[in-house]
Amino acid sequence: MPLKIPFMSRKLPQQEKLQDIESDNVPNHIAIIMDGNGRWAKEKNLPRIAGHKEGMGVVKKVVRHASDLGVKTLTLYAFSTENWKRPKKEVDFLMKLPVDFLQTYLPELIEKNVRVQTIGTKGLLPEHTQQAVDEAIRQTEQNTGMILNFALNYGSRHEIVEVTKCLANQVKRGELEPESITEELFEENLYTSHLEEPDLLIRTSGEQRLSNFLLWQLAYAEFWFTDVYWPSFNEETLEEAIRNYQKRKRRYGGV
Ligand code: V07
Q1: Is the pLDDT of residue 8 over 60?
Q2: Dihedral angle sign, alpha carbons of residues 210, 184, 124, 168
Q3: Nearest residue CA, atom 13 of ligand 1?
Q4: Ligand 1 mean position, distance from CA 204 (Å)
Q5: Domains in the chain, please, with CATH?
Q6: Which of 95, 94, 57, 108 shows the shortest CA–CA distance to 230?
Q7: What confidence category does residue 250 fall into, taking pLDDT thresholds of 50, 70 and 90?
Q8: Dist CA 23 CA 35 (whole Å)
């Protein structure tokens, strides 16, 4: 005979309901600082590169899930201008990851209608890395789904200085009046000019700093931090971040 469960005790479905993502309030643009790969590896007595490799697998899962949830742009901090200071062996390994990633995953990106883009100074990356990334950009440029934007050799202060130089040169040539320099004009010269501003910044691994990531663009974003190391991040952690974002948005709405 089936056991009868009193109505009020059937907690599970209700809880699940509460934890649903509101599909009409998903952040359009999520930016992620994927931190903690080295620490994850260290705790497992593995070399740091094993953490990066595992982290790359997480990128695939998160891209898939973000695209399924209707995120319009996902910006991932893959390599900062500071990362060159790491041991050469580690840098060499990191520079192979885009190649490795795209070899196994580009067909799925195409199938999912994802468009690959980058921000940062790509010209300073090794030739094989540039080629793989450029090929992915080219093969996905007609896609109309989620923009998967990799920050590669990216540093926000450098970006801001470059925009400043560009505008200063226009002034010098007599093409621009200093009075005409507005926030809008400045923005039009950033790498991200064609993108909406991020709505949500996620940083993993317990650090609560921006580390030179999208300083201008994150002016109005919600920040969400987790102690989870990037290789342990998954679909559920992404949903947790989005639910938290939606809770905050509801509070603002109520005022
Ligand atoms: C990198 C894996 C994720 C954790 C953080 C650091 C290590 C994916 C890419 C990538 C980049 C461009 C592209 C396709 C894939 C990547 C680097 C490091 C340098 F077109 N993961 N990942 N690039 N890590």
Answers
A1: no
A2: negative
A3: 98
A4: 15
A5: 26-155+196-246 (3.40.1180.10)
A6: 57
A7: confident
A8: 27
Ligand 1 pocket, residue 136 CB under 6 Å: yes
pLDDT digits (tens, 9 = 90+) for 155-195: 999 999 999 999 999 999 999 999 999 999 999 999 999 99
The Cα diameter of the chain in Å comes to: 88
Q: Check pLDDT > 70 for residue 14.
A: no
- Rounded mean pLDDT of 223-243? 98
* The one-letter amino acid at 112: K
**CB of 34 shorter than 6 A to ligand 1:** yes
Distant-in-sequence, close-in-space partners of 14: CB < 8 Å, separation ≥ 6? none
93, two tokens: 């390994």
233-242 per-position pLDDT tens digit? 999 999 999 9
Q: Is 233 in the pocket of ligand 1 (CB under 6 A)?
A: no
Q: Is 35 part of the annotated catalytic residue set? A: yes
Give the up-direction half-sphere exposure of residue 145: CA atoms within 13 A in the CB hemisphere: 18
C-alpha 221/C-alpha 198 separation (Å) is: 6
Q: What is the pTM of this model?
A: 0.92
Name the residue with tokens 């200063």.
Answer: 168
102 lines ligand 1 (CB under 6 A): yes
